[in-house]
């Protein structure tokens, strides 16, 4: 036992020594100055210690910010830490650089030129670091510094831009080159047009033709629209569009898909002539691409692309540029996510092999003939040849038969019927493939077109309606025959069924217009074809529905007949998401079409949406006022009988539906007469005031106060309604109803919904009776109403008011109330007089 006790004593001594040594170490560390701790741990062999130094640099700078010499010492230590051999330390340092730069910017008098002398060289050096994590961190830091405008324009042009350009040199690694090109595309809008054209544009054009790795071309394609927006229309058409044509015919489907996704921005930066003569035919090639993912992206961009044909005075593009801010519907879908997930190199290599088979059927000279040149004008047919993109190899075609020279007569066809028939026969054995079937349909349409009209130019048929119209602004080469594109999918049973009563010639002419190339419009109308969902995208109908307001605004109400059948088809689509999209935008379409077309074509669809699922009805309800105000008064009045149907929902717990109804009823009051409001909207408001959910009730109280304002013009209706409020709320068995009456009275005075004489006569006497209410919450709100609202009006303080004595007696009674909250609000004017906060705070614990 003695030995055991001795051992315990020795262990306690040892533990005590270790604890004291640790405490000494901590106390010594705390005694060091911030610079002393920085010097101590920056040279530590422990990587974690050096990481902690990097993380604490900002705190150290703040601690010594008053001494310029100490600040310079910290910045010098940062430069020393930047040479650390451990990548994690360098990455940690780079994460702190933007925060340190902001601090230096805010304290420029103490540490002038700190960023340009100490921090910027580190950022530039790390852009070419060998470690991937350090490079990624430096790129993110660079973007933050540019967004915060912490870098001088001269430093960016002389230090940053040359490094980025050097990183895209041919001898750079593929990963570095791809990363550098991505960061160049992001930096270009920040540095402006001048720097981009001088430093970035030549290398960007060069990278678009990089044949080593498709990743670089894919990055260029994905950011092509942004680059066009920076450099402007002239540089876009002279330098960028030829590269864009090459990217659209790239062997890798991922590159072509990226081109389809940015087509709208590229079109916006181009001139109307280029957009109509070149880009429209190029877009048709993407729609008929062998890859399903490319076709999917092209159809999703079709509506936005059509919107770029709108006149400058219209805002058609707003339906797509404001898309990320829209809460009701977003253009990004799960299908895009699936597409993004299936873009690894394995899948791309498979499609690359398929593309290689197609490329073998073309010579190098033929490929070059399909690309535009900035030095010479090339016919539209030579800019793009859809045959080059077929998955299944086809027989060689004599270029003289396939391509047309500029000096050919306009009536000479691009391909005669014999060659078209041969092409169709060669593809017929593979008709089971949906992609091949789509190509056969295009060829079949072209074959039919040759029989309709011999006036062909660059493989585009001139519509007869356009030729006979002297006011048409379209050129023969800009339009496809309506019959050609209408029959692009032979399985369009719905359109055939709906138009079977029309003569084919009349049917063709009914879809003619001169705003956008007819080929684009026909492709857009085909998005409702059921076969498109199988061969392109299951969500293609929803994309069509989302784009329809922008397309309608582009075409104008005079061309609504072109979209009417498509809109009706979408409105009856089996997918509720498609109908929901239309329901959220029907008010926008009504504004475009005007009252006559709206009453004739949109009102029936609007009525069907009212009886649809809650997911669809909410779209109608959110914009109920916006739609009804566009209707004629007689048509608008018919909906008074249907408003009560909104009280019934598929799910009784969907209280937000009823809350939205209350908000819309507030807006609808101005559309109807006082008698209609009393007969139809008043019962709805009183029903909503007794809702189980507090948020619905409080919104409904405001609705009641607005109804009082509306009925104030008719004394008989007002007296009747005020009496009903007293009976149902002031004399209610539930304390929440009595509290609601006090709140409505407060709102009526605050918002001046009725005259003070009318209030004093009909509402003030029952309001003062609430002073004896057994529930403190009711008395609290009454005290607030009297003190903050009524006594603020001189009318209630003068002897003219017959209720002055009763008002004073009630206030005295509340000041001596047993409840301290009631006594406080009746005696002292609270600091805040905002109505919503005071009223809601009274019920926060009970609702």
Automatic annotation (TrEMBL):
One of its GO terms (cellular component) is cytoplasm. InterPro entries: ARM-like, ARM-type_fold, HEAT, HEAT_type_2, PP2A_Regulatory_Subunit_A, WRNPLPNID. Residues 502-512 have a biased composition (Basic and acidic residues). PROSITE patterns: HEAT_REPEAT (PS50077). Keywords: Phosphoprotein, Repeat. It holds the Pfam family WRNPLPNID. GO terms for molecular function: protein phosphatase regulator activity. It comes from the Eukaryota. Residues 318-377, 465-514 are annotated as: Disordered. The keyword Cell cycle does not apply. HEAT repeats lie at residues 160-199, 240-278, 763-786. The keyword Phosphoprotein applies. Residues 384-411 form the Putative WW-binding domain. Residues 358-376, 469-478 have a biased composition (Polar residues). Serine/threonine-protein phosphatase 4 (PP4) occurs in different assemblies of the catalytic and one or more regulatory subunits. Component of the PP4 complex PPP4C-PPP4R1. Interacts with HDAC3. Regulatory subunit of serine/threonine-protein phosphatase 4. May play a role in regulation of cell division in renal glomeruli. The PPP4C-PPP4R1 PP4 complex may play a role in dephosphorylation and regulation of HDAC3. Plays a role in the inhibition of TNF-induced NF-kappa-B activation by regulating the dephosphorylation of TRAF2. This is Serine/threonine-protein phosphatase 4 regulatory subunit 1. It comes from Cyprinus carpio carpio. The lineage of its organism: Eukaryota, Metazoa, Chordata, Craniata, Vertebrata.
């Amino acid at each position: 036992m003695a030995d055991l006790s001795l051992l315990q004593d020795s262990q306690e001594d040892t533990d005590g020594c270790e604890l004291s040594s640790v405490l000494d170490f901590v106390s010594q560390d705390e005694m060091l100055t911030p610079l002393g701790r920085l010097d101590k741990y920056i040279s530590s062999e422990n990587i974690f210690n050096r990481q902690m130094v990097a993380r604490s640099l900002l705190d150290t700078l703040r601690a010594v910010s008053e001494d310029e010499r100490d600040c310079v010492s910290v910045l010098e230590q940062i430069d020393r830490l930047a040479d650390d051999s451990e990548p994690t330390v360098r990455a940690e340092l780079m994460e702190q650089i933007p925060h340190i730069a902001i601090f230096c910017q805010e304290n420029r008098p103490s540490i002038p030129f700190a960023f340009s002398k100490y921090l910027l060289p580190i950022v530039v050096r790390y852009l070419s670091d060998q470690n991937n994590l350090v490079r990624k961190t430096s790129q993110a830091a660079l973007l933050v510094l540019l967004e915060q405008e912490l870098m001088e324009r001269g430093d960016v042009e002389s230090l940053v831009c040359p490094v980025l350009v050097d990183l895209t040199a041919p001898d750079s690694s593929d990963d570095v080159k791809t990363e550098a090109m991505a960061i160049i595309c992001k930096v270009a809008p920040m540095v402006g047009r001048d720097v981009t054209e001088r430093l970035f544009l030549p290398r960007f054009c060069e990278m678009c033709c990089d044949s080593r790795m498709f990743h670089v071309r894919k990055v260029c394609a994905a950011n092509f629209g942004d680059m066009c927006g920076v450099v402007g229309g002239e540089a876009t058409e002279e330098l960028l569009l030829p590269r864009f044509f090459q990217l659209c015919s790239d062997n890798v489907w991922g590159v072509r898909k990226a081109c389809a996704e940015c087509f709208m921005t590229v079109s916006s930066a181009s001139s109307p002539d280029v957009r109509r003569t070149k880009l429209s035919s190029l877009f048709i090639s993407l729609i008929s691409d062998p890859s399903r993912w490319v076709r999917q992206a092209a159809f999703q961009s079709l509506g936005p692309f059509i919107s770029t044909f709108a006149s400058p005075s219209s805002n058609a593009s707003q339906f797509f540029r404001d898309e990320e801010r829209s809460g009701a519907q977003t253009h990004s879908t799960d299908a895009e996510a699936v597409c993004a997930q299936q873009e690894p190199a394995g899948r791309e290599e498979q499609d690359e092999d398929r593309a290689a088979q197609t490329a073998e059927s073309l010579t190098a000279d033929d490929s070059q003939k399909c690309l535009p040149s900035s030095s010479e004008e090339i016919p539209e047919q030579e800019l793009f040849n859809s045959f080059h993109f077929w998955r299944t190899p086809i027989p060689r075609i004599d270029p003289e038969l396939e391509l047309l020279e500029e000096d050919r007569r306009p009536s000479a066809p691009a391909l005669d019927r014999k060659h078209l028939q041969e092409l169709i026969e060669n593809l017929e054995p593979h008709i089971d493939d949906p992609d091949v079937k789509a190509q056969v349909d295009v060829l079949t349409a072209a074959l039919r077109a040759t029989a309709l009209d011999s006036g062909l130019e660059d493989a585009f048929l001139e519509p007869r309606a356009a030729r006979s119209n002297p006011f048409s602004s379209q050129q023969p080469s800009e339009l496809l025959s309506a019959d050609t594109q209408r029959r692009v999918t032979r399985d369009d049973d719905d359109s055939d069924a709906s138009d079977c009563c029309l003569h084919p010639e009349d049917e063709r002419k009914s879809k003619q217009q001169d705003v956008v190339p007819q080929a684009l419009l026909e492709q857009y109308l085909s998005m409702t074809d059921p076969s498109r969902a199988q061969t392109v995208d299951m969500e293609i109908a929803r994309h069509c529905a989302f784009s329809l307001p922008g397309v309608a605004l582009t075409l104008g109400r005079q061309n609504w007949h072109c979209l009417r059948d498509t809109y009706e088809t979408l409105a009856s689509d089996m997918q509720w998401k498609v109908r929901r999209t239309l329901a959220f935008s029907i008010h926008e379409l009504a504004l475009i079409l005007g009252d006559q077309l709206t009453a004739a074509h949109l009102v029936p669809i609007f009525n069907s949406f009212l009886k649809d699922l809650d997911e669809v009805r909410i779209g109608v309800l959110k914009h109920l006022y916006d739609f009804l105000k566009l209707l004629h008064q007689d048509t608008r009045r018919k909906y008074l009988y249907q408003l009560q149907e909104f009280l019934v929902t598929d799910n009784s717990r969907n209280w937000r539906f009823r809350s939205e109804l209350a908000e819309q009823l507030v807006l609808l009051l101005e559309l109807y007469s006082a008698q209609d409001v009393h007969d139809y909207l008043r019962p709805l408001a009183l029903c909503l005031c007794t809702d189980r959910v507090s948020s619905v009730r409080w919104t409904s109280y405001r609705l009641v106060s607005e109804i009082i304002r509306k009925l104030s013009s008719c004394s008989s209706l007002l007296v009747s309604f005020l009496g009903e409020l007293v009976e149902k709320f002031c004399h209610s068995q539930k304390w929440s109803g009595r509290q609601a009456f006090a709140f409505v009275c407060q709102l009526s005075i605050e918002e001046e919904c009725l005259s003070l004489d009318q209030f004093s006569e009909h509402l003030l006497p029952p309001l003062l009776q609430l002073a004896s209410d057994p529930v403190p919450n009711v008395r609290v709100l009454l005290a607030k109403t009297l003190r903050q609202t009524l006594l603020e009006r001189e009318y209630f303080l003068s002897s003219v008011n017959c209720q002055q004595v009763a008002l004073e007696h009630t206030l005295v009674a509340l000041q001596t109330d047993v409840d301290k909250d009631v006594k406080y609000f009746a005696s002292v004017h609270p600091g805040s007089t905002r109505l919503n906060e005071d009223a809601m705070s009274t019920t926060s614990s009970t609702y």
